[in-house]
């Protein structure tokens, strides 16, 4: 009711809010997201033998789920399976610590076999003005370099490893190339490294099958704040100004301005003449 | 050009300076009676954390409105989980379109300033335009059209080069004062002031001022209180919190 939302951005804002959820969920719970990064196969995901994600399609990110700390058994089956007894991947144990933030990724090994990897997401605070970019190699492909601006910013990243960078907020045009080369196998692609946000990019798919792709997960609410607002320098409204009566104050103000202007122009002149003004 | 005393600007505008000074003097005349009203709150407001009253209403955070594009998941009742799903493809990410504020007006106080999007100064504080009549919007925080959080817009209260700034009037804003923000797409957002606080700079809860959660609200910041004549800085910030009004139509 008190919200003023322009319709056009409402949908985007909702998505952003969804991204904000993990940071604000119940204390003590672990946050688990699940990314399906195995091409061409729709699956079901069972957590502790309970069907949790039905008909989960490739390239889809699910979660975050708030779960009490503990170890969870995850099995990934064909989408028409009746239960978790004949999984395609797993069952694997996911040990989730209290307050931790995790992403479980179903993906291919370098050789192209289905597997799953549990990543721990860094949700530590990010300096103001910066964003965190994490790149995870989950593709059936050899080790890669990630290039931005023509130079490798990540080198020799191999499946299933990750690399974490802290960057000034902004858009990064990135390409992925086989290690030691610059010929892109993915990209160039624009990645928005949002301020105060962890942006996690997954390279997935198969080089051999020609379906390499990038998936993105974001975790916001990790920002820091400006350290202050220095918003005055003349003392014109100071409560401790030298004289409190208007007349004197105006005299003082005039003098201040004159002196200030004089000092400034003197400084400038001095700088123009000699190099060390002061 | 580091942070203070823009010498280049000073030399470029010697003719303007006297005019500015005249305006400044006139503005001081207006501000002077208000300053005594400001001095009172300086002492009392620091203790009475009015901020709690205004920021304590995160009523519409809408955490339950999670995007669930796939209503097909009927079965997970087994575990009682309804897990939101999103298309993670890089190209499917929603564009970061933000309506940026470009103007702030407080009609009853005669404030009408341009607003520019600013980030951080080298020392990690909010970067402000040198001209006190141009305010800074913290571009990484919410905008008035964001779904949640505090939009922070700040301006110098005064300047050695330009004289008194319009935000000097803020310290005297009575509760309920109308504040109008215009966006770069000509959208208009209206707020009404709830609190005016004068807080020692060392005691300002910046995480609260720059809070990106909770009800949409506007926080106007400038300087005030006592002035340290040896360092050339005010010792306090004037912080005005305003809440979004129901609808801008009418």
From TrEMBL, chain A:
Pfam families to which the protein is assigned, alphabetical: DUF4397 (PF14344)
Signal peptide positions (record): 1-25
Statement: the UniProt record of this protein carries the keyword Plastid: no
Residues annotated as transmembrane: 248-268
Residue intervals of the DUF4397 domain: 30-146
InterPro entries, per the entry: DUF4397
Keywords: Membrane, Signal, Transmembrane, Transmembrane helix
UniProt-recorded name of the protein: DUF4397 domain-containing protein
From TrEMBL, chain B:
UniProt cross-references to InterPro entries, sorted A to Z: Sortase, Sortase_dom-sf, Sortase_F
Keywords for this protein: Hydrolase, Signal
Residue ranges with Low complexity bias: 53-80
Pfam families xref list: Sortase
Tree of life domain: Bacteria
Signal sequence range: 1-21
Disordered as annotated region, ranges: 44-82
Protein known as: Class F sortase
Organism of derivation: Herbiconiux daphne
């Amino acid at each position: 009711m008190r919200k003023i939302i322009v319709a056009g951005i409402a949908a985007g804002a909702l998505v952003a809010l969804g991204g904000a959820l993990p940071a604000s969920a119940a204390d003590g719970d672990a946050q688990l997201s699940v990314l399906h990064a195995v091409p061409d196969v729709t699956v079901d995901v069972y957590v502790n033998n309970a069907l949790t994600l039905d008909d989960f399609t490739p390239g889809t990110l699910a979660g975050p789920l708030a779960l009490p700390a503990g170890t969870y058994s995850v099995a990934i089956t064909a989408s028409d399976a009746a239960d978790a007894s004949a999984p395609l991947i797993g069952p694997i144990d996911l040990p989730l610590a209290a307050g931790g933030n995790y992403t479980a990724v179903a993906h291919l090994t370098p050789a192209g076999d289905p597997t799953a990897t549990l990543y721990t997401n860094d949700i530590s605070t990010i300096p103001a003005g910066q964003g965190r970019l994490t790149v995870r190699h989950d593709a059936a492909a050899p080790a890669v370099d990630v290039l931005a601006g023509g130079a490798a910013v990540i080198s020799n990243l191999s499946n299933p490893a990750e690399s974490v960078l802290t960057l000034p907020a902004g858009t990064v045009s990135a390409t992925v190339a086989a290690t030691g080369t610059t010929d892109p196998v993915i990209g160039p692609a624009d990645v928005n490294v949002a301020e105060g946000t962890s942006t996690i990019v997954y390279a997935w798919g198969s080089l051999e099958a020609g379906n390499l792709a990038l998936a993105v997960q974001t975790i916001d609410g990790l920002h820091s704040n400006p350290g202050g607002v220095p918003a005055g320098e003349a003392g014109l409204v100071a409560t401790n100004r030298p004289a409190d009566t208007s007349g004197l104050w105006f005299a003082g103000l005039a003098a201040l301005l004159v002196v200030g202007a004089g000092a400034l122009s003197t400084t400038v002149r001095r700088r123009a003449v000699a190099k060390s003004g002061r | 050009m580091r942070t203070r005393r823009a010498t280049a600007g000073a030399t470029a505008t010697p003719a303007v300076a006297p005019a500015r000074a005249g305006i400044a003097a006139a503005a001081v005349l207006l501000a002077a009676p208000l300053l005594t009203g400001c001095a009172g709150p300086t002492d009392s407001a620091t203790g009475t954390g009015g901020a709690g009253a205004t920021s304590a209403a995160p009523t519409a955070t809408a955490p339950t409105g999670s995007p669930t594009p796939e209503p097909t998941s009927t079965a997970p009742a087994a575990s009682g989980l309804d897990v939101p799903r999103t298309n993670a493809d890089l190209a499917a990410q929603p564009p970061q379109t933000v309506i940026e504020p470009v103007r702030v007006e407080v009609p009853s106080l005669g404030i009408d300033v341009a607003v520019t999007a600013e980030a951080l100064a080298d020392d990690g504080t909010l970067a402000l335009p040198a001209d006190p009549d141009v305010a800074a919007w913290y571009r990484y925080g919410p905008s008035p059209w964001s779904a949640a959080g505090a939009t922070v817009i700040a301006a110098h209260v005064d300047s050695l080069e330009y004289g008194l700034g319009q935000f000097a009037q803020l310290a005297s804003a009575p509760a309920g004062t109308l504040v109008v923000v215009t966006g770069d797409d000509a959208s208009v957002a209206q707020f009404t002031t709830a609190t005016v606080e004068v807080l020692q700079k060392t005691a300002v809860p910046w995480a609260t001022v720059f809070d990106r959660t909770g009800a949409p609200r506007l926080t106007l910041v400038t300087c005030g209180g006592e002035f340290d004549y040896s360092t050339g800085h005010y010792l306090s910030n004037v912080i005005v919190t305003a809440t979004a009004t129901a609808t801008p139509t009418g």
